[in-house]
Fold Aromatic amino acid aminotransferase.
Amino acid sequence: MVVSIRPAVASVPVYRPGKPAPVGPDGVSFKLSSNENPYPPLPGVLAATQQACERMNRYPDMANTELTAELAAKLGVGVDQIAVGTGSVAVLYSLLQAVAGAGDEVIYPWRSFEAYPIAVQLTGARSVQVPNLSDAGHDLEAIRRAVSDATKAILICTPNNPTGPAVDHDQLAAFIDDVPDHIMIIIDEAYLEFGTAPHRARGLELVRPNVASLRTFSKAYGLAGFRVGYLVGDPQVAGAVRAVSAPFGVSLPAQAAAVASLSAEDQLLERVAELIKERSLVLDGLRDLGFAVPDSQSNFVWLPAGERTAEYSDAFAAAGLITRPFVDEPDAGIRITVGEPEANRLILRVAESLPR
């Protein structure tokens, strides 16, 4: 007899990670497909990680005690409001498992983070996808209209991955006030630190019993390879996430690196400021070339390409730039991570040669 796999698992969409960078004609190779921070670890962070590796024969602190205390102090919240996991996406999976199941609905904008359909389907719930506005941002009014008696959770991605815009704070606050209190609202702020728009959403200020913020050390803090993310929410919600999460998930070196990164935050945010400058260069350059690129409050830009998406992606790859094409119609396009200055200037040189 063959083992029976749950239908929700057997038919789950495949998450496609960014491909390795190709080598261009001049030996150039830049991976711009995974929104990674291009800067190497700071010496202090690396030293803390190496010291932690000397204790790799021991289990990590399952409660993430030191990291949780540091985060609580930094954010001005209680330690009982924080749940740490292996990246914000793992925290999302745990939270959805805690609040949604068969027969329920989870609403989220689309296009948005590729992991959302997978996370929802694994709970047995049904995805309700609401198209973005023409400016590639969320349509909060349409999301509110999609709420039904079966709705258990709503995902808001700000800044939105892969299109870039951030949700307006006052609009999101009004939206939350209008949604029934029994529905869990999850604000995914993985790219929070890259935002500069004055009216961008400030998720921490909106946390309440049915609203939680997801954050990560993968992007601005440059710890993508260690997988550390966290939730800030109501103590009951944070406790549910901790209860559902796998024991000992965040490794000893990962916890040490995250704590050291918080201590080195000023240096790390200097790097973020440089990436923001480079983002402006790429955005302005693409627009000067005639591309209708939406605003980005993240460490990537979205290049709408329609039926030319695969063609454009191949052109970037031929020059040694691996980007992230999304070929689904009608919103096909390419997400391009803001990388090293040399990579960003090569993006514009390739873009200048692209057919329109």
About this structure: The domain at 43-263 is CATH 3.40.640.10 (Aspartate Aminotransferase; domain 2). The radius of gyration is 20 Å.
